Amino acid sequence: MKVSIIIPTRNEERSIGKVITSLHEAMKSMGEIKYEILVVDTESTDRTREIASSLGACVVDEPRRGYGRAYKTGFSRAKGEIIVTMDGDLTYPAGSIPDLINTLEKESLEFISGDRLTLLEPGAMSRLHRFGNWMLTFCTNLLFGIRIKDSQSGMWVFRRDLLGRLTLTSDGMPFSEEIKIEAFTKGKAREVPIKYGRREGEAKLRTLSDGWKNLKFLWVKRFRRRE
To answer: Residues 6-45: pLDDT tens digits?
Structure first.
């Protein structure tokens, strides 16, 4: 078994080194398992690429903007049977990856999404972001008949084979909710609580505009399903 860990980046020099180092430490606990770290970078103007490369990550250039676009590019380059995703800002727990992979294997799951809210660290998410997440998650569950707690989480562990059954149309921030909608309606999936910490570096999320785009996307995707 080989694992591909995909991290989209743009100007994450303050944290990317710590993230990659923590990933190496986490994967060592899994013995002889093979893994690769793919940093999909969109025009960083700082030392993100240099740091990532020096620590053994494969840096993939993706000049086209978009959260979903970065992941699609990463998926196309990944060689692992299992794919893990996380951000480059230290918010997601690299140390949880071995347990998540073991859960995927033991329960014969195809997709695991990390639930950030159950174990949320104080100060890691603003009240506005928590409200926005609640609203988007509520609409996701209502429109698509699934039951999840955190529709916006960016940490997933899943089998590469599942991608062939998913219809992923978004190249932007809505990609996060879309991949969960697809996985939870077409595969064997569940949520697992994970710790979520304070980010390092500049936030890329534009709260109001990205929130509106995500909400609009849910309704558009639901309407298209009826056609």
So the answer is: 999 999 999 999 999 999 999 999 998 999 999 999 999 9
**Cβ proximity of 96 and 195 under 8 Å:** yes
Both tokens of residue 26?
């986490």
- Length of the chain in residues, anyone? 227
Parallel, antiparallel or unpaired: strands 2-9 and 82-85: parallel
Tokens of 114: 């990390």
| Dihedral pair phi/psi, residue 82, rounded to 5° | -120, 135
For the chain, list the domains and their CATH numbers. Answer: 2-126+152-202 (3.90.550.10)
Q: DSSP assignment of 76-124, as one string?
A: HH---SEEEE--SSS-S-GGGHHHHHHHHHHTT-SEEEEEEEEEEPTTS
Q: What is the pLDDT of residue 208?
A: 72
